[in-house]
Amino acid sequence: LQVPRAPSQPTASSESRRFTNKHSKKALKASLTLGILLGMFFVAWLPFFVTNVTQAVCSCVPAGFFDVLTWLGYCNSTMNPIIYPLFMRDFKRAMGKYLPCCRRSGEPRPSAISLSMRNSNSGPRAATSLKNVL
Asked: Domain extents for the chain?
């Protein structure tokens, strides 16, 4: 005898597979972004720090070479605002929301009051007294 399958079983497994695939794609993208950012950081700053320690021990590093490594680190710091929007959608949205050069034409501009209230956590609240808090 064959037992018929319930129609909900294939749907549940396909939904779970779809969720797993979506979750694994997000995790892969996040790890790729983190790998790129950390890789660029180490490539740019590790030679500077190794040279710094070497300079402290033997004082044999030419000043021009040290300056080049310092500027390599500065270039990495300059690249971060370019790298983050390329790989992170939330960062791109935040940039578009608060910077006028990155805002779309149809989006309203946030007011200074709403920004300060949002940042200071002093938005409209229900009146609280010390008695209610304790």
From this structure: 18-98
